[in-house]
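Fill in residues.
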């Protein structure tokens, strides 16, 4: 059976230092860097995902994710709107060790969906290796995901825990929306 290859733009959303770049590097290159380098503007990486079966005709679709790692910019301006334009989905990331990043996520996601209302979302509580299981941030991430009728995962870019799963789940969501 033929495989249809599609490119899909995916945005990484969240404040500075939540691990967007580390998650992207773990997923694309399977590596983690201890040193923190702030992303300036946007960095784009690409990764081809395993084929997914879609639709009644059971077509095989293989996505090339163009992952836009967007700097945690506080000011929502035309530049940010341009970064969001055309996105099929986004991973909304918070740092479970810093509650303020969890609190800021709702506003960031609301601004994103005003630009691309049909984009699929996945919420990530990152740095699970550094947070306690009963941490309030985890409950807040679950509540945010529910509010946006989305899913959530708790990840660790450092250990790789659930990083690939997050991107693959988002691919399934993007895939199912293209078959509706």
């Amino acid at each position: 059976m033929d495989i249809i290859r599609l490119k899909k733009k995916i945005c990484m959303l969240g404040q500075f230092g939540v691990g967007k770049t580390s998650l992207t590097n773990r997923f694309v290159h399977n590596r983690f860097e201890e040193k923190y380098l702030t992303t300036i503007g946007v960095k784009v990486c690409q990764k081809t995902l395993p084929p997914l079966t879609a639709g009644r005709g059971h077509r095989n679709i293989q996505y090339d994710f163009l992952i836009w790692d967007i700097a945690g910019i506080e000011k929502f301006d035309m530049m940010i709107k341009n970064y969001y334009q055309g996105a099929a989905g986004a991973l909304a990331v918070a740092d479970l060790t810093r509650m303020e990043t969890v609190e800021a996520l709702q506003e960031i996601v609301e601004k994103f969906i005003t630009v691309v209302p049909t984009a699929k979302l996945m919420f990530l509580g990152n740095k699970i290796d550094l947070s306690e299981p009963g941490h309030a941030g985890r409950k807040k991430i679950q509540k945010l995901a529910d509010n946006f009728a989305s899913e959530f995962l708790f990840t660790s870019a450092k250990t790789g825990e659930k990083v690939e799963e997050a991107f693959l789940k988002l691919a399934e969501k993007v895939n199912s929306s293209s078959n509706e």
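The chain has a mean pLDDT of 89.
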